[in-house]
Amino acid sequence: MTSTKGFAAQSAKGDLGPYAFERRELRSDDVGFRIDFTGICHTDIHQVREEWGASIFPMVPGHEMVGTVTSIGDDVTRFKSGDRIGVGVFIDSCRICVNCLKGLQQYCLDGYTDTYNGYERNTKQIAFGGYSNYFVIPESYAYTLPKNLDMAAMAPLICAGITLYSPLKNWKVGPGSNVAVAGLGGLGHMGVKFAAALGATVTVLSHSDSKENDAKAFGATEFINTQKADWHLGYRKNFDLILNTVSAQIDLEPYLTTLATDGSLVMIGIPSAPYSISPGSLIDGRRSVAGSLIGGIPETQEMLNFCGVKNIVSEVEVISADYINEAYERTIASDVRYRFVIDCSTF
Ligand code: NAP
Ligand code: ZN
């Protein structure tokens, strides 16, 4: 066992605070690594605060971690001590279902093993996530990281990055595509960067006027303030694809009117209450509403390699552990440019 220091929530009501625990010994296919940086995803906040239902406590959140390999099991072939390594939203899956075999582990028919707020597949112990300074992972569930990119700025790629990259690939976005990204937060800003890098025309739909210059710097050609009444009227049947990363409940009807014929609104943000959609908004233009969940292992590695080639990273505010609770409040207030990342040497 390895003594590990982190931060945990003890209940949905209180703040997160220091928490010490033990990580398991390495199995033959495991890699042990020092966590250098972990991003704060809005999903962490939803789960800590039980916005999606009952959670498991104590909870050490964190599923965007990057670090440096410190030890390897006897059968490990892809990593050696000193290598850069990343881990995301899942730490295992059944490995044998049709989706796992296709590299779509995020859609494992048995349910993937969550990095936190779940139980480890073999031991049935509570899984503790990346708000900590040491981690153990089977090598086939870890990612190799480009050598040319800043470590802190890479952490958010492993959830925020892949979560936007995957639908852009699935809906075949490229030159000539007209894409809108709703919500310019941790996920949304990665969507703008990726869609622009793939050659699409990108528009940001945001309720924060102050983000316009940043949106354009990330690659958007247009910025629409959705706080303005009737913002959608000039954009009827305009976008091929809207990626909705908004973490809160919004009225989807104006967004649907801006979808072109055969356009798709892809739900990515996960507010706690259901949405309502009128059938007429879909029927007029054969529009679709779909969803997309992170990405599988091969596609996540592809995304990281793409970032290395294109020099794409997340915009981050690096914080120490004692700032986590304030960072949560600022994330909820849409006041983060554009991802908080914890320096894990401060646990
Ligand atoms: P985030 O950094 O907090 O960004 C969310 C953005 O939504 C904000 O920056 C803001 O953008 C907009 N927003 C927030 N509250 C709003 C409100 N009341 N009205 C209108 N717009 C509002 O969060 P994130 O980490 O990017 O995560 C976004 C969502 O995706 C969360 O629900 C998270 O759980 C979910 N998620 C899903 C997946 C998946 O696989 N599908 C993976 C990771 C996360 P503007 O200021 O530009 O308006
Ligand atoms: Zn996440």
Model description:
The protein is an alpha/beta fold and 347 residues long. Helices cover 22% and strands 27% of the residues. It is built from 10 helices and 17 strands. It has helices at residues 42-48, 98-101, 151-154, 160-170, 186-197, 212-218, 253-257, 279-283, 297-310, 324-332, and strands at residues 2-9, 16-23, 30-39, 65-72, 84-87, 90-92, 113-114, 134-138, 143-144, 178-182, 201-206, 222-225, 239-244, 259-267, 288-291, 316-319, 339-343. Strands 3, 4, 5, 8, 9, 16 and 17 form a 7-stranded mixed sheet that branches. Helix 4 packs across helix 5 and helix 4 crosses helix 9. The longest helix has 14 residues, at 297-310. It is globular and about 60 Å long. The chain starts with a strand and ends with a strand. The relative contact order is 0.17. The model has no long low-confidence stretch (mean pLDDT 97). NADP nicotinamide-adenine-dinucleotide phosphate (NAP) binds at residues 41-43, 46, 159-160, 163, 183-188, 206-208, 211, 245-248, 250, 268-270, 292-294, 331, 334, 336. Zinc ion binds at residues 41, 43, 63, 89, 159.
